Amino acid sequence: MLPALVLFMPLCGFASEPQPAPTRVLLLASDDGTLHQRILLSMERQIGNVPASRTRAIATDEGARTQIGHFDCTECLIVTSGVHALRLGLEASHQARILAIAIPEESFLQMTRGRTDRDRLSAIFMEVSLERMAEIISQRLTGIESVGIVSSDGRYLSGEHRLGHPDRAPGLKFREYAVPREADIVDVFTQASRENQAILAVPDPRIFNRDTIVRIMLTTYRSNTPVIGYSEAMNRAGALMSVFSSPEMLGDEAGELVADALRAQRWQHTERHTERYTVAVNPQVARSLRIRVKETP
């Protein structure tokens, strides 16, 4: 199976003129779990003193569609935390502006592709951009020139929506590998580990999930190839290091965006990756692989 060597093109976000700021805000969580409650609590702290009425709702509740209907107006903003909340928000609203948070870029693109109302849909993607990730890899790990990415369809890197190749990491190349069937996952990761100096995990639940993560970590470990993850859980599972945003970081970032818009009384469409993150290193894996991870330069 031949990998795809990808050259990046600049990210082209959807452009729109500023609009009046919303006066009513609905905070819609995908479920009542701790993750989304931490995100929305942090967000509420940021917007607590700005002039707008706000309400919380949970997408799994029976009355969620009715609540969304009460906030489906041109002066309304629905902030969706997670994939399920965004899906319900898209189905149940037609006029309200939507800000999607705590969602991977690929999930947002799949759910909004082909829609004619993209001008009302904004997002802060939960993962760090590929451009920034490449900079972090180059800064923290010595001698890494080739990074493998494994995805379900081999098209994660393709498309004009991906960020351009970073100027500050000119020697870094990404190779992508597709997994046509779950039964092939070990073989594909074996190939990717042999042909690259590191594996970058991306938020593809068909590849990285509780049923596959142990097999993936064992396969890459046997090849002495480090995995760079996108969550704290992946760091505990055996990634050399992970770059991720905490729930509080995601909530604070979204809350500041909304608060600034309310204070300025204007709403500007946005579609970007999170700019707040932490880098967690697994020292046991670093010792086992005999890899030195540099401190922040």
Gist?
With 297 residues, the protein is of the alpha/beta class.
Please give the structural blueprint.
Blueprint: E1 4-5, E2 19-20, E3 24-29, H1 34-47, E4 53-58, H2 64-70, E5 76-81, H3 83-92, E6 97-103, H4 105-112, E7 121-125, H5 130-140, E8 146-151, E9 173-178, H6 185-195, E10 198-200, H7 213-222, E11 227-229, H8 232-237, E12 241-244, H9 247-264, E13 266-267, E14 271-273, E15 278-281, H10 283-289
Parallel strand pairs: 3-4, 3-5, 5-6, 6-7, 7-14, 8-9, 8-10, 10-11, 11-12
Antiparallel strand pairs: 1-9, 2-13, 12-15
Helix pairs in contact: 1-9, 6-7
Characterization of the model:
With 297 residues, the protein is an alpha/beta fold. It has 2 domains: 4-9 and 129-243 and 279-289, Response regulator (Rossmann fold), CATH 3.40.50.2300; 19-126 and 247-275, Response regulator (Rossmann fold, 3-Layer(aba) Sandwich). The chain has helices at 34-47, 64-70, 83-92, 105-112, 130-140, 185-195, 213-222, 232-237, 247-264, 283-289, and strands at 4-5, 19-20, 24-29, 53-58, 76-81, 97-103, 121-125, 146-151, 173-178, 198-200, 227-229, 241-244, 266-267, 271-273, 278-281. A 7-stranded mixed beta sheet has the order 1-9-8-10-11-12-15. A 6-stranded parallel beta sheet has the order 4-3-5-6-7-14, sandwiched between helices. Strands 2-13 form a two-stranded antiparallel ribbon. The longest helix has 18 residues, at 247-264. The two termini are 38 Å apart.
For this structure, what is the CATH class of the largest domain?
A: Alpha Beta
Biggest sheet features = 7 strands, mixed
The SSE string, one letter per element, is EEEHEHEHEHEHEEHEHEHEHEEEH
**How many E strands?**
15
Radius of gyration: 20 Å
CATH H level, superfamily name of the largest domain: Response regulator
This entry's quaternary arrangement is single chain
- What CATH architecture of the largest domain would you give? 3-Layer(aba) Sandwich
Give the end-to-end Cα distance, rounded to a whole number of Å.
38 Å
Our count of domains comes out at: 2
Could you list the spans in which at least 5 consecutive residues all have pLDDT below 50?
4-13, 163-168
- CATH topology-level fold name of the largest domain: Rossmann fold
Shape: elongated
Number of helices: 10
